[in-house]
Fold these 4 entries.
Entry 1:
Amino acid sequence: MWPDRRLIDLFGIETPIIQAPMAGVTDAELMIAAAKGGALASLPCAMLSPDKVREQVAAFRNAVKAPINLNFFSHQAVPSDPEIEARWRVRLSGYAEELGLMADYPAPAASRAPFDEAMCALVEELRPEVVSFHFGLPPEPLLARVEAAGALVLSSATIVREAIWLEQHGVDAIIAQGAEAGGHRGMFLTDDTAAQPGLFALLPQVVDAVKVPVIATGGIADGRGIAAAFALGAAGVQLGTVYMHCPEAKVSALARAAMQQAGDDSTVLTNIMTGRPARGIANRVMRELGPLSAEVPPFPHASGALGPLRAAAEQRGKVDFSFLWAGQAVRIGTGQPAEQLTRALAEAAQQRLKQLGGP
């Protein structure tokens, strides 16, 4: 029934749907349910220790016979700059005082590490069927080892030039990330946030520019969106925000309430939270200091000083400093368990594609 089966055949999955890797939201419970529904399950590894990755993969393998995607960041690590971070702390000092924190409150170090030798060795040990990267690709020697371990390689492109670069560097499929998508932008050949195209402009241009299968992501949350992506040439879709509504997602009660109250204009592109552009539901600190600011320390160091503020505010029932990553279709969510959601999405998309095909 699918007009393009390349992704299904490439990954050995039932439906051309990838459950997006979402740090802090996704663990084995959500992955297992999505895989049982026929999707490719994804584990976000950038904030996990090797032991935690092993634990999550083992739980998945013990529960379901299905392929798994391990996702990593591949940004260039930037050392901490004490001067920039001191200025950032001063900028946040009014919030600290308001929350009853000392001006020199201790802040944890940033925990988002790029793909490195240790994680590469872990891939060689665990042998996932798929490895995906965000912010480009890791250095060639590491990438070659991932491929030698038998993993298919994916990465995200936010402009056509990035898609062409990824194909030239040997990826097996490309994720076309429209500006509507929640979470961090996968930008690596551009830093121009103002020029990021939406999915329906980006997708057909990427499809025309490369030969490998293209996966659409950004603002897709139901069968209509999946069918539209296929009509524009996609071989599959990656869905994130809609899975955040599932009971298996590790979303706090405060964040769920923010999602339920959000509208189509509630998300913004911001660098305030981590130092890199990402889309999320606007909160107080995004509105008052940004949403985009030149004062923010480079990724990922901006997040350290916000951690204690976030914890103190959440104790008071507020999300003023919380990560609320979500795409523009945040309101489109049924709250179904992930297995049923995946099957319902696939069925609705096939019905819509059949209607579009005419009698």
Entry 2:
Amino acid sequence: MTRDARAFWLRAPGKGEIRSVALPDPGAEEVLVRSRYSGISRGTETLVFSGGVPVSQYAAMRAPFQEGDFPGPLKYGYLNVGVVEEGPAHLLGRTVFCLYPHQSAYVVPASAVVAVPEGVPPARAVLTGTVETAVNALWDAAPLVGDRITVVGAGMVGCCVAALLVRFPGVQVQLVDADPGRSGVAEALGVEFALPPEAAEGRDLVVHASASSAGLQRSLDLLAPEGTVVDLSWYGDRTVNLSLGGAFHSGRLSIRSSQVGMVSPARRASRTFADRLELALELLHDPVFDVLITGTSRLDELPDVLPRLAAGTLPALCHLITYGE
């Protein structure tokens, strides 16, 4: 016996479609999940949609339940919240988060889902994967009490990093973005906002998440001597140009990468992927994260929504996809 579901597939770079999918019956250690919401991880997913993943990164950029291969056809995505309709008793009827693409229902191992805590709305829970990225970044960055920290890039990831940093005691946080419209988001997060030319200098730490050469250069320019830029951006196949002839060497500045595909070395011996996901879900009890959900569309509208997100004609932080509601 099989069941039918609907899924978004990238047919070729820049062209998406909804396909029917036959689901198997779940096995003894599997769950059948009916999707309620999925979120578009705008930076990565628009790069995938546009065919911007370099050949050398095909293996590294595979999503956990991706089907097909880059540049397409493929099924991609990793922010899904649904309800368990069949599976082990302790999960039956529970709302769960899963790193699954945009699909109306799916069967996965029970170990691949994490129960959403009471008090975290299902729509907000789609941000789990992004908050998890921010948690990993701060494990990498290791901010100290009283640090002067700037986050460059007020997209989903940058905003999540800023929302967590503002909780650190004595830390001065500034969120920097070229779009003055992001000042309202910063205000809602309780973080100071600045345009790049007005950003405060002499920073101990800068977290870069704008995915642009200009943003990375400005991040370096903001550092105090011996300061560090932690770069979360995914550039795809784009070239990054930097000017390192100023204070980079004399100031002993550093650039470090952070990537969510592995648990940070600072916590790898004591935390698992599941621990990191559960921590992200606990942090999402804070309703401040709702400001990052900036639009909704139905699954059948996704082939038209992603081209607009990729072109920038549909401004969004996290754009929510709904299923049967």
Entry 3:
Amino acid sequence: MIEPSAGLPLDRRRMFQLAAVLGGGLALGERAFAAQGSPMPAASAAPSLKVPPGTIRLNGNEYWEGPVDDGLDAARAAVARSNYYDPAGERDALIETVSTMERVGADHVVPWAGSGSPLARAVVGFCGPERGLVTADPTFEVAWMVAAYVGAPVAKVPLRSPDQAHDVRAMLAANPRAGLYYVCNPNNPTGSLTPMEDIAWLVENKPKDAVVLLDEAYLHFSHAASGMDLVRNGRDVVILRTFSKIFGMAGMRMGLSIARPDLQARLMQYDGVIQTLQLPVPALACASASLRRMDQITNRREQTTQTREKTAAFLTQRGLAVLPSAANMLMVDWGKPAAPIKAAMEAKGIAIGRSWPIWPTRSRITIGSPQEMERFCASVERVLAQA
């Protein structure tokens, strides 16, 4: 069992700021920090996802369709009951559904408003000035930003060549006394996979009082194995899941953390269970119903794979380097600074994703519908011709 941390010294202002990060997510956290005169650490994360009407959205890794039909039906029914806080036990129903599907105890499952909150909570709960964070580079940056706020040192380890997997041995060597090792699998922004045996090695060899945070936000786009066996076996692992991607529920805000109860308690040590109890009933109902239609999620995965590979082939034929991906994204190297390409694409009504400091010539491209990706390819052709 992981021993409780000594905790961070928190005055009223710092508690307010921290509560904003843990409860409201990154956007609310930024507003709260600004209001209190303590700016969020600078990073390239969290640009505005607002785009002009009619713009094709290939910038946020959202799925191009909404929830599956059964999920929509369940959400509509729940709206009619939403005059009550918990009209039909929707939160417990989601926990039971996940518990049964994943073969873990119900006390191992905690729902959240997306997976960003438990990610931030893991950094706060397991890191501090003496216990750092280790991640790949590039990867999803929110963990870096929260670590900077709590004063935890961050070690960023380049992805392994040539497969772009997390280099787990280099990650352990980068900080053998870290409190948290963050593995996003498939990784964001690359869509690359880290073999489960590598993740298991990290769990086996990490410090005894450290935790591996395994972010599986994009797992259902791939055929990769989950790390759930590590949780079932009682290891020091927290798994994150989200309904914001292939389930088409980004705007409904629903996610999960799955871990031993003592690890879940560490995610709630600064504000208790209140945030996970205050979840919208329609989102809970939609999530439960969607999980019962995994056949439709499988269909989404296969269509995304076909569209992604067709798009990658087009880009490769134009002489652009494209990293292999097992998720709903591609990392494209333009061979020149990516920012002007991004601006040129936006001028043509297509919003593409950002770059990471380690790769300033590469852009992350979300895979949209087949029709959207046809328009993307045509626009790339025109932009390259004008360059």
Entry 4:
Amino acid sequence: MPHIFEHGILRRMSFTQSLMFGYSIVIMVGALLLCLPISTTERVRTPLNHCVFTTTSALSGTGLTLHDTYSYWSLFGQIVILIIIQIGGIGFMSIGLFALSFMGKKIGLKQRATMRESIGSVSSGGVVKMTRFILKGTALFESLGTAALCFWFVPRLGWAKGIYFSLFHSISAFCTAGLDLMGYFEPGSSLITANDSVILNIPIIILLVVGGIGFFTWSDIVTHKHHIKKYSAQTKIILVVTVLFYFFGMLDMALLEWHNDATMGDLGYGGKIIASSMLVTSGRDAGFASVTVANLRQTSIMLLICFMFVGGSPGSTACGIKVTTFAVMMMTISTVFRKKKSVEFFGRRVDDTTVRNASCITTLYLVLVAVSAMIITGVDGLELTPVVFELVSAISSTGLSMGITTSLSDLSIFIVIMIMFFGRVGGITFIVSLHNNYASNKSQLPEEKIML
């Protein structure tokens, strides 16, 4: 795949345009394969827009579905979806350029720069080494996750199907995709049918956390181990925000959902803790539903929207505006109130470009969700809350839903597809891709104060 950069139109593309083009190709090839009758259990042709929706959801790690993954798609279709999930989770450029490195081929500056965009690195230095770390770490955790999940699936499904189910859910969880095959037990049930199972839920929760924290964070932890003072400011931010989100999420579950008969009424204390943990973890990274989301209290739904909007960490398999963007925005507010000149974290100053980018990303995501929500509610006549929930879930590649996905019109499906694609490539990448080069500022205009 990487040698295509040397020929034709791709040679004239910028790094980010090449990345978006590559993701588009993966989506369309996957969609065309899913259109084939062999991809469905009933051997029927699936509408192209439904196939594009499914492949975009798989590539972006969203998990929103128009059809139950197990009961509607055949084994062939499921494998196509699984491959796309894996490509989306670790980046298609990581796979292609690692293959070149493995064969001893020279990797040029453009390939390195495109790979940097693909994995979310801030520089091209050491990017090949980081890619090897990503692929080795992915193989390790997905293998361990498959082995752990076998203890739940194999006794119920036998060795062949049990191992396949374990592999599928391990990859889906690590790539924070949220797509599942639990429709074998009950169509569209996700993890609700086994939401009190320790053997099933704990490995998935661990895979979600590992995938959502990010490869660069794990690289920092592996390098410095228990010497926390040597961690980068970014790693410290990610770890602190992750812990705080989990704490407040569990607190909300304890105060509001613990006694909600519509969600956790039939579960014991242990089951409620497991279901709550899955909901809080999946609410930031993936779409594994441990309870019926539509039955949650309004406060819990709002909290989940906030969690989904923020998403995971930079360089991870998760999307959203990212926890670092959220932290920069919160510290910017604090800086204004404290009348300080710069945003600071753990004894380090954040540069102005990063602050502007964080503001741009947050505003852009909010505007896209707001405009899309107005269009969908106007076209489909749906209530605002489930539509906003669906759109935030799509743009953050979370995949939780209040049950309106299958009720969307063709126009609304197209909007959600674009939102999912935008969430996959990221706000800054999408903006930069529209231009090959930044405009050069040779002079500055006169300054004028504007009231806020």
